[in-house]
Amino acid sequence: MSLPIEDIKNYHLSQNEFESMYFYKTELQTICRNLNLNTSGTKFDLNQRIIKYLNHDPQTNGPSSQHNGITTDLKLSTKIINGVKLNQQLRNFMANYYGKETFKFSKEMAVTFRETKANNDSSITIQTLIDINDGKVSVNTDKDDASYQWNQFVKDFCADLATKPIQNKLKSAAILWKLVKTKADKRYSHNLLKYLP
Question: Which residue among 83, 101, 133 closes a domain?
Fold first, then answer.
């Protein structure tokens, strides 16, 4: 599948059509580069830039300069846009809050974090992340799930006992992925093995 750069550039592709397609991060970077958009960030960030382009929405280049400083003293009331990052400092704060040795960020927390930064939302605090972790606030991760589909596909492919003799599993999984990445159901199925050379 060739990249729909010209269709995007000329607004011949709707947001729904774009979202129904799957792209590798490098492909999204190529699209962004051709549209003169920022090419840094996660797949989610790149997707959002392209969607904003398609919808004629203004691009944001990350948090404003007033929020670029890293917060050193974390509190429950600390706003995410005030320089908080999903890093070891926040992980230590959360572990201490829960009285644990270690702490892992959930996908819901990561989605909220990215959306907060993208929308420059000053209402989201560390307390919000704790409420999400405690199940008091639900977060829709459907859009973010696209970023994990390839990883799950490879995991399921490798878990299939029939793939045990395959030498280069990643290359073989990529061949099969090309068959399903533009379909609605992007899950691995044992039946796909018949398409391997």
Answer: 133
Residue 60 lies in a domain: no
Domain that holds residue 26: 5-54
Instruction: Please report the sign of the dihedral spanned by the C-alpha atoms of residue 132, residue 140, residue 150, residue 57.
Output: negative
Nearest to 60 by CA among 114, 127, 141: 114
pTM for the model: 0.47
- Tell me, letter by letter, the H, E, C secondary structure of 81-92: CCCCCCCHHHHH
Whether the Cβ atoms of residue 146 and residue 180 lie closer than 8 Å to each other:
no
> Residue 79: what are its φ and ψ, rounded to 5°?
-75, 140
How much of the chain is helix, strand and coil, in % rounded to 5? 55, 0, 45
Kindly give, in sequence order, each residue whose CB lies less than 8 Å from that of residue 12, ignoring residues fewer than 6 positions away.
Answer: 6
Q: Number of folded domains in the chain?
A: 3
User: For 81-132, what is each residue's pLDDT tens digit?
Assistant: 888 888 888 999 999 999 999 999 988 898 888 888 888 888 999 999 999 9
Phi first, then psi: give them for residue 114, nearest 5 degrees.
Answer: -65, -45
Q: Distance between CA atoms of 62 and 117, rounded to whole angstroms?
A: 7
At residue 53, what is the residue type? Y
C-alpha span between 126 and 105 (Å, rounded): 12
